[in-house]
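Worked problem 6 (solution included).
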Amino acid sequence: MTRQALIVWGGWNGHTPQECADVVAGMLRDDGFEVFIEDTTEAFADPGLKDMHLIVPIYTMSTMEKEEVTNLTSAVESGVGLAGFHGGMCDAFRNEVAYQFMTGGQWVSHPGNIIDYRVRVTRRDDPVMQGLEDFDYRSEQYYMHVDPNNEVLAETTFTGDHAAWIAGHTMPVVWKRKHGAGRVFYSALGHRVEEFENQAMRTILHRGLLWAAREA
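Solution. The predicted structure is:
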């Protein structure tokens, strides 16, 4: 049975959601997925959502109808995988706490905007991070409100150069979790489509997508 993935893109265009959706679709098709791409949150209300193997939201900010939230969270609870990155997943639908409960985090700031920072791998034994070493990254360093139930795979520490009161504080960058029977994966890396050229970012997301996807 061919596994099916749904990518839903939209919201703030500064995150190049359509271009990112095309890249993610290509990655999944190379892995044998049948990929569907939609550009409206109405896709989350489709009763067939529960039959998908993976859902990838790439939809910064914006809003979602209650029935769309309910159907999406119910699909994941039933076993459909959810995976995403940066603001496309964890700065989406800010008013929907049920959505945030599912994803495990919500963006609140990126002090300094585009800066250089260090990503530390915390779980080298995990298949998503296997073979990866700590690496330097240039992008928005996300400061987030995060769920303590997340299994953190990578983290970063703030210098305080752009917000002195958070100097020395450590923040998760990559995590995975369960929501009901569904697997949920998130990476804060990937501000714009150009960041897919970073091999570490691309590898982490690619592996995370495959980990989250429900088995056929």
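Discussion: The helical segments are 17-30, 66-78, 86-90, 97-103, 199-212.
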